[in-house]
Design brief:
The chain is of the alpha+beta class and 618 residues long. The protein contains 15 helices and 29 strands. Helix 3 crosses helix 4. The N and C termini lie far apart (63 Å).
């Protein structure tokens, strides 16, 4: 009797280890590795999701259960099985190319800049045995099946079968949190069968997935008490069903809580606070009014010493008072004949959450298009964080976490070069400038693509400041020289906006430093949040425009020449963010602030915040 395949309800892809992870309705995971990408994701035709406003929106595509984002930033459709992938490929051929013959369709399906199009046509005609003058829409079902079989073969779906592996596992997730926000860089100890393994949480407070042992033994979770230095067990993971396991830091003590339990279950009526990312133009009074709280309550909740808040920071707002106020009956106005509407009736902006939610399915009209792995059109990822410049909360959280540590100390905990795979390893030293690596790491954490596939020197370009402007473009075999082209992943802006990528540019128009635009510093400078600024992650001022040299008389009446500064700024945003950026241009969201004040407020220790940076070149 043939076993019934359990239903796979969602899937994701881990490009760093080239594993497709399918989630079953019973909580188990199916891991597919080896073979080729089309096989791992059950996509015989290498179908990718078209983008609408920079987001994957495959409305007309059916049967997919997730998106696979490769290291190059491309987004492919993941299907639960081969039949679903073949079904969508057939539908795509009829929908997109029904009125074309094979020789007419392939230049669109497998464009010349990605493939040897003529060879593709010749191989497909020979293998499918479909006449060259026959339109695909008039083909019989058997002929369509032959076309699909041939495409799957050409795309490599059946290649390397000896390396294919499928593993069914039960997994649980562990998250570190203080009850209001995730905690990065937390170390825990996993004990499995008497063997211990130390792991750390990432920037979103998430630990690597824990695979339940096949012998049903429990996985014990422990932490090291910072005072006594003793190892304390905080919980265990076991059973045949995967769960969320939250490691809660409350009142300086750790507590393990199953995902189905409430964080504050010991306090009746109290619910988990929400997290709001401060937007440009916000103040405590405005936020308190919108969410029916008070300035004092928000300050107390977040241990604020003053009313000053900064864009990109994350505030915790108690949801108990908010829900109570929003559900309260309307009060009568002494001067009105009808009860006034509660504030709940007003339009309340959605809070901006730091952890990325599951990938949503867009409702924008679209279709599927095919692309070879690692080649072809640039496909940007959906941005899972709402609000302006969603990479900024990530950059600010990292800056706060490092607290002004110098590069030699930072690299003992993380190397942004290694994280983005730009070919370098160390942050320390004049030859290892890491400003571009830090910016790309923040963008990557916010799910924006940072690498152009099939481009020469694409890895190294991620580590160069000038790479946000120009990269080595792809070349034909007949071309002897690689030409420089504008980086298609980024769009240049005429003026700065909050969160824009600012490239410090020399007189020769070459970029040699990069950071995120955060605020104004007077009329002639901008404050950038960036890495490799005095070997730190901090806020520093930079000239917007080049400063010409000038002559001025000194106290003695003698003329002195003051050398100018040719450095100036160019501004970019990810292509996927461009539509929002055009709206932001009417309200750039840049306050006039002091870099020293920002650094001090965010706990970044630096003595050089008021001088114009001269970072190492990249």
């Amino acid at each position: 009797m043939t076993a019934i395949m359990p239903k796979l309800i969602s899937a994701t892809y881990h490009p760093n280890i080239e594993v497709a992870e399918f989630i079953c309705e019973d909580g188990r995971r199916l891991l597919r590795h080896g073979g080729t990408l089309p096989w791992r994701i059950n996509n015989p035709g290498d179908l990718t999701a078209l983008l609408v406003d920079g987001k994957p929106a495959p409305k007309k595509a059916k049967g997919y259960v997730g998106f696979a984002t490769t290291r190059s930033g491309r987004i492919f459709l993941i299907f639960p099985d081969e039949i679903s992938g073949r079904t969508e490929l057939k539908a795509n051929l009829k929908r997109m190319h029904g009125d074309r013959t094979i020789p007419e369709a392939i230049p669109f399906y497998a464009p010349k800049n990605e493939n040897n199009t003529q060879k593709y046509i010749d191989d497909l005609l020979k293998s499918s045995k479909v006449a060259a003058d026959k339109k695909i829409g008039t083909c019989s079902e058997a002929e369509i099946e032959n076309i699909v079989d041939s495409i799957a073969k050409i795309e490599g779906y059946h290649a390397s079968p000896e390396t294919r592996k499928e593993t069914w596992v039960t997994v649980s997730t562990i998250n570190a949190t203080d009850g209001t926000q995730p905690l990065p860089e937390v170390e825990i100890i996993l004990e499995i069968g008497g063997q211990s393994n130390k792991v750390k949480s990432n920037s979103a407070g998430r630990f690597p997935l824990v695979i339940h042992p096949a012998d049903k033994k429990p996985v014990h979770v422990s932490v090291v008490d910072q005072k006594s230095k003793k190892t304390m067990k905080v919980g265990s993971i076991k059973g045949d069903t995967g769960n969320d396991f939250n490691l809660l830091a409350k009142f300086r003590k750790w507590k393990g809580i199953a995902g189905s339990e409430k964080f504050n279950s010991s306090t009746q009526g109290q619910k988990k606070p929400m997290r709001y990312v401060v937007q440009p133009g916000d103040n405590l009074g405005k936020i308190a009014k919108i969410y029916r709280s008070t300035v004092a309550a928000i300050k107390d909740e977040n241990n604020l010493d003053s009313d000053r808040i900064y864009p990109g920071e994350t505030l915790s707002i108690s949801s108990r008072d908010r829900e109570k106020s929003l559900s309260a009956p309307a009060k009568l106005d002494a001067h009105a004949s009808k009860p006034t509407a509660p504030i709940a009736a007003k339009k309340i902006p959605h809070p901006v959450f730091v952890p990325a939610p599951p990938i949503p399915i867009s409702t924008q009209p679209s279709d599927s298009e095919r692309s070879k792995e690692g080649t072809g059109k640039i496909l940007a990822l959906i941005n899972p964080l709402s609000g302006r410049a969603p990479w900024m909360p990530i950059a600010i959280a990292e800056a706060k976490l490092r607290r002004g540590e110098h590069e030699a100390k930072i690299e003992k905990k993380i190397s942004y070069h290694v994280e983005i795979d730009d070919g370098l390893k160390s942050l320390d030293g004049p030859r290892n400038a890491w400003c571009a690596a830090f910016v790309n790491w923040c963008l990557m954490q916010a799910k924006y693509p940072i690498e152009n596939s099939n481009f020469p020197n694409r890895r190294a370009a991620k580590g160069r400041a000038h790479g946000f402007y120009e990269v080595s473009g792809p070349k034909e075999k007949s071309e002897a020289v690689v030409i420089m082209i504008r980086n298609p992943l980024f769009v240049e802006l005429d003026k700065p906006i909050y969160g824009a990528i600012a490239m410090v540019t020399s007189k020769s128009n070459h970029g040699h430093h990069v950071g995120f635009v955060y605020a104004k510093h007077g009329d002639k400078k901008l404050i950038l949040l960036g890495g490799n600024q005095d070997s730190q992650i901090n806020f520093s001022p930079f000239n917007i425009n080049a400063v010409a040299g000038y002559t001025r008389k000194n106290k003695d009446g003698k003329s002195e020449y003051h050398k100018g500064n040719p450095n100036h700024l160019k501004f970019f945003v990810p292509t996927a963010y461009y539509e929002q950026a055009k709206k932001d241009l009417s309200d750039p969201g840049l306050e006039n602030l002091s870099a020293a004040e920002i650094n001090k407020s965010m706990g970044i220790e630096t003595d050089n915040s008021n001088s114009n940076r001269s970072p190492s070149t990249t």
